[in-house]
Predict the structure.
Amino acid sequence: MVKRARLIYNPVSGHEIMERNVAGVLSVLEDAGYESSTFRTRPQEGSTEAEAARVAEAGFDLIVAAGGDGTINEVVNGIAGLPKRPMLGIIPVGTTNDYARALKIPREDPVGAAKVIAKGEHIGVDIGRANDTYFVNIAGGGNMMDLTYEVQSDVKSALGYLAYLLKGAEMLPRMRPIPMHLAYDDGEYDGEASMFFLSLTNSVGGLETIAPDAVLGDGQFTLMIVKTANLVEIVQLLTMVLTGGRHVNDDRIIYTQTRHLDVAAPHGEQLKVNLDGEYGGDAPMHFVNLKQHIQAFANVADIPDEAIATQEAKKKLIETARTLKDPDQQVNSDNQQ
C-alpha cells in the first residue's frame, strides 16, 4: 500500500529557504516510499491547522511541517485533537528551531532534515494542552515571557536569537512581579513571580540549560517559577542559566516536574499566557501533559540516553529503523529464532 505524505511549508521562514528546496525535499520523501504533495501556508488565521486536520482525516501517513516553531505548533494544533494522527516530520528553517534542536534534526538544511525522516527513526513525543489549545515546546506567563511578543517578526528574521537578547536587556529595568496562584502535582505557589514557565524539551530560546534535565516522552513538564523581579537578581539568575544551568537549585526559583498545572491571576491582574512563543490567551488556564501523543521522526541515535524516556525504547527504535531499511536483516533475524 502506498504511503502518502503532505509537506506543509512556510514560504517565508528562514529567508525563504524552503521555496528553493521543495523539490529536493520531495525527492527524498519519494525515495523513502511516500507519494508526496505540498501545501504553502497562508496568512489567513487557522489555515495551516485546517489543512493539517484535513490531511489527517483523509488518512495521510505523514505530515511534514517545514518552517519555524510556530509552523510546527500550527500543524500540531490541527492534528492533536484527532483520534488518529499521522506521523510528524519536521524541517526546521525558522529563527531558533528549538523543537528540532531537541530532536537533533539538522537546522537550515531542508534536504538533510528530510533524510532524517527517510531514516525511519521516530519517538513518541509529549504534547501540552492549555485549556483547548496545544503546544509542542513551551508555555509560560509573566513579564519575562512578554519579550517574545515585543520582538517583531522581521527583526527576528534578521537577527535571530540576538533579537531576543537585545529585547530582554531593554525590558529588564521595567520588570515587575505579578500575583499568581499556581497549583502543580507536588504543591502550590501563591504569591508574586516574574514568570512561570513550562517546558517539554531541554531546548528553549536556543539554550539547552534552562531545563537541562527535561526528558522526551516521559509525560512530565519541567516547571520553573521565578519568584524574584529584582533587576540584579534576574541578571544573576540569567548568568547561572548561561553557566551550566545552576539556577535549578537556587532558592529564588521553584524548579520541578509535573504533569498538570493550574494557573490563576488573583486581584484582577491580567496574566497573558505564551504558547510556543505566541500569545495563547489569559489565565485562568489548565495545563496537562499528553504523554507520547504524537510520533515524530528524530535523529534518535544522536539524542543522549538521559534525554529520552527509556534507553531500551531508544535501542529498539534504532534497530527497527535499520530493519525497515534492510529487509534481509529481518529475514536473518527470523531464521535465528
Observations:
- Confidence is low (pLDDT under 50) at residues 154-167, 327-337.
- The first strand starts at residue 3 and ends at 9.
- The first helix runs from residue 13 to 16.
- The CA atoms of residues 79 and 85 lie 6 Å apart.
